[in-house]
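The authors assume throughout that readers already know how a fold can be written as discrete tokens. What matters is that the chain and its backbone geometry are given together, residue for residue. A single example would do more here than another paragraph of explanation. For illustration, here is how one protein appears when written out as sequence plus structure tokens.
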Amino acid sequence: MISTTKNKFLFPLAIVLAAAVGVAGSAFFLMPRMEMNHGAERNKEIIAASRDGIKDLLAQGRYKCCLDKPCSYCFADPEHQDRELVCDCLEDIMNGKHPCGECIGEILEGNGNPLISEYFASSIAEKVGESHLQTLKQIIAEKYGMPAEKQF
């Protein structure tokens, strides 16, 4: 009789516990999704502010990027904040120095300023190693139509 009474209480108790765990678990798994939505809105605000800041620096002549659409790396990088030129990737490329990492990636994807494409391979090689120069020249030739023999 005692075991029957126990079973009568254990079964409903197990159902109540399962329901409580299910509700708590679903709330737990839904919470990150709500935070991501909040985060996405905040990211949009940050991106808009960054674009406005870059536009202001471009107008002042302090943001000289080597891409068709200026990168955001130099704008966000604290090392660049104390410089007269916040972004000097264009000057770096023209002087045979490597640009920032974002510019390197974008150049290799074909998003660099095509007017200076003959300088890309040697400037990037300064960072990744001269042993990659021929491969870089091939990539630049494919992406920009700049023959390898005309590149520096």
Summary: The mean pLDDT is 81. The chain has two domains: 1-60, 62-152. The two ends are 94 Å apart (CA to CA). Residues 1-60 form one domain.
